[in-house]
Structures are given as structure tokens and as C-alpha cells.
Design a protein that fits this description.
heterodimer; A: mainly alpha; B: alpha+beta; SKP1-like protein (chain A); Skp1_comp_dimer (chain A); SKP1/BTB/POZ_sf (chain A); Skp1_comp_POZ (chain A); ubl conjugation pathway (chain A)
């Protein structure tokens, strides 16, 4: 299966590692990009993932991993610069544009990314998806939040409890 | 906010005191910090709920549900931390379900929320209408608008001056304390 992008930039000697998704798809990616994952970083530092070996990721399917790696590849150069203190405004704007576009996705994909970012401990991605969900629910009522996030309808007991809480906010109905 | 607390946390609970101290204390300090010493306005902060919510609740409509939000409390916390520091944000989240309520009132979460949002919005100010009369004027739009009646002081016959906004000491019940009066501080107890 095709890796989302190979290390064909101007550094032809970049070290590559192979990641194997839960459905046995192999992704070859620059070590620097994969190392955005705290979980993978140690293995990679120890020399793992190279050659024919590959690092198995039993919790991440190929569709999700492909998306995760898209993020890592885009963010790796800035991360290599230690948060890119000397990045230009254009670079930062471009990353921001990428991020906004990146999370403009189906909710089921977003949910998979939440889990993957957590399991792989990719800090920037965790933050990005958390922000996306927060943006989805901000300004919404409790019931709208439940619907937005796919909660089942409240049971009669839950509903009664919520209504009782609501009624306490007398002045808020003015 | 006090109503929110009444609604969700037993009034004597330790968590509630923490919420009052951490969230409200922070907002009051921060809000007061933005005005000059000579300004005859005093600023107050708090949280509210919107009126549309209860109506929404009773409708109980269903819609095609996507797979439910996954993840641990930690991950949920990361999401809720990123809500804007508006008066309605956390109370609304706290009414989503029991788990969210528990998380929103977790002292550690509140500390983190406070640390993250260092510049809370200005909720309103006290207007010294006459020498005997203070009125609270909210500055935010609904659902973040705090009704004036919530914070306005009862009218008095003698002249008064505004001393500031304080929170009750740990262990005391009650809400926002406002010192007003010539010789003795007076407490506005939120109901």
C-alpha cells in the first residue's frame, strides 16, 4: 500500500521507518515525522521500525493512520525546529490553514483521530482534535451538545434530573 | 453561577467551595484588575445558564446520532478545557450528563481551566446611580448576560460607597461579597 508521502524532499538520506496498521497495511514514513508520537519515539530512537521489521500499531486502522501521518509529515519540519521559533509568519499561517482543513472531516473520522492521537501521544494532534470538539459544542445548550456528540437520548430519569437542574436557574429565564 | 452551583453541587460540599474560590475568585480578581482605581465602577464576574436550554430539554427530539464521543475522562477534560471562558460554558457542559458534571466540578479541572484562561471576559460593572444606589449593569449578551437583579444591592437611605468584590472565606456559605457602606462592610449574599 502506498505510504501517504515518502521522504523524497531535499534530504534524500532521511531515515525511514515502517508502521503497520491494525489491518496490516504498511506505511513508510520519515523517522522525524513518526517521532512526533511520544509512543513511537523511544522505539525509533532504539533503532526500531527500520528495514523489513516495521512497528505494529494494533489500535490504529489504516484509514486513521494515513490521516495521522498526514498530520505528522506536515508538522515534522516545524517540530524539528523546536516549535519553529524562527518560522516565518507565512509558515505559521500555512500550518494553521492546514490544521483547520485537517479537522474539517466526518465526525467518525474525528473520533478515530481522538483515540489515535491519544494512543500515539501526539501532543499537537491531541490538542487540535480537542479544540475541534470544543468548537463543535461551544455556545450550545446541554441537549444540543448531546445531539452533536451522538449521545443517546436521555433516559426519563436522566431527563427528569436534567430538567430539575434547569429549573434551578430561575433568573436565567428572564 | 451560584444558581449553577446550587443546581449541581450540594451547597456544603468541598467541591463547591473550590469552584466558588477558584473560578469566581479568579474572575473577580481579573475583572477588577482592568479598571482604574478612580473609576466609579466595580466589576463582577459569574456564570449563568441560558433560558433556551430548558425548553430544548423538554422537546426531547431525536436526530441521527453519529458514533458517540470516545475517550477517557482525561480526553474529555482536554476538550472542556478548550471551551471559551464565558459564563454559560461550564454550567451548560455540566448539565450534559453526570460524567461531565463530575468532571466540570473536579477541583483539578477547575484549576486547569483557570490557569488556561487568564483573560476572562468582563461580565458587567456596578454603576453608582445615586449616593444610595448601586446597580449592576451586565455587558455580555445572552446566554452570558447576568440579570441585574442578581448582583444589585438593595437601596439604602444613607450614602454608601463601593469597597470591592470579595469571596467568602473558605468554610462559609453564601456567595459574592460586596463591601458597601460608610462604617461597616455589608455583604450581598447571592440567592
Amino acid at each position: 500500500m502506498a505510504a501517504p508521502e515518502s521522504g523524497d524532499g531535499n534530504n534524500g538520506a532521511a531515515r525511514m521507518v515502517t508502521l503497520i496498521s491494525s489491518d496490516n497495511t504498511r506505511f513508510e514514513v520519515e523517522a522525524a515525522a513518526a517521532s512526533l508520537s511520544q509512543t513511537l519515539q523511544l522505539t525509533i530512537l532504539d533503532g526500531g521500525g527500520g528495514g523489513g521489521d516495521g512497528i505494529p500499531l494494533p489500535n490504529v486502522d489504516s484509514a486513521t493512520l494515513s490521516k495521522v501521518l498526514e498530520y505528522c509529515i506536515k508538522h515534522a519540519p516545524a517540530a524539528a525546529n523546536g516549535g519553529a521559533p524562527n518560522a516565518t509568519a507565512v509558515d505559521r499561517a500555512e500550518l494553521e490553514r492546514f490544521d483547520n482543513e485537517f479537522v474539517n472531516i466526518d465526525q467518525s473520522v474525528l473520533y478515530s483521530l481522538i483515540m489515535a492521537a491519544h494512543n500515539l501521544e501526539i501532543e499537537g494532534l491531541q490538542s487540535l482534535v480537542a479544540k475541534k470538539v470544543a468548537d463543535m459544542i461551544k455556545g450550545k445548550s446541554p441537549m444540543e451538545i448531546r445531539r452533536t456528540l451522538g449521545f443517546p437520548d436521555p433516559t426519563p430519569e436522566e431527563q427528569a434530573e436534567m430538567n430539575a437542574h434547569m429549573l434551578e436557574y430561575g433568573w436565567a429565564y428572564e | 453561577m451560584f444558581e449553577a452551583l446550587e443546581a449541581t453541587v450540594p451547597s456544603r460540599s468541598r467541591d463547591r467551595l473550590l469552584v466558588e474560590q477558584e473560578v469566581l475568585g479568579w474572575e473577580i480578581e481579573a475583572a477588577l484588575g482592568c479598571i482604574g482605581p478612580e473609576a466609579r465602577m466595580n466589576v463582577v464576574a459569574g456564570y449563568s445558564l441560558d433560558s433556551a436550554s430548558a425548553i430544548e430539554m423538554s422537546e426531547g427530539r431525536t436526530s441521527p446520532a453519529p458514533a458517540s464521543l470516545p475517550g477517557s475522562d482525561d480526553m474529555l477534560g482536554e476538550i472542556l478545557l478548550r471551551l471559551p471562558p464565558l459564563p454559560s460554558a461550564l454550567p451548560r457542559a455540566s448539565l450534559v450528563c453526570k460524567r461531565w458534571r463530575r468532571l466540570v466540578f473536579d477541583p483539578q479541572f477547575i484549576r486547569r481551566f483557570r490557569a488556561r484562561h487568564r483573560t476572562p471576559p468582563l461580565l458587567g460593572f456596578f454603576y453608582h446611580r445615586t449616593v444610595t444606589d448601586f446597580v449592576f449593569v451586565p455587558t455580555l449578551d445572552p446566554p452570558d448576560r447576568i440579570p441585574p437583579a442578581c448582583f444589585s444591592l438593595p437601596q439604602h437611605t444613607e450614602s454608601r460607597r463601593f469597597l470591592g468584590c470579595r469571596l467568602p472565606q473558605s468554610g462559609q456559605n453564601g456567595g459574592l461579597g460586596i463591601g458597601a457602606g460608610d462604617d461597616r462592610p455589608e455583604m450581598l449574599n447571592k440567592t
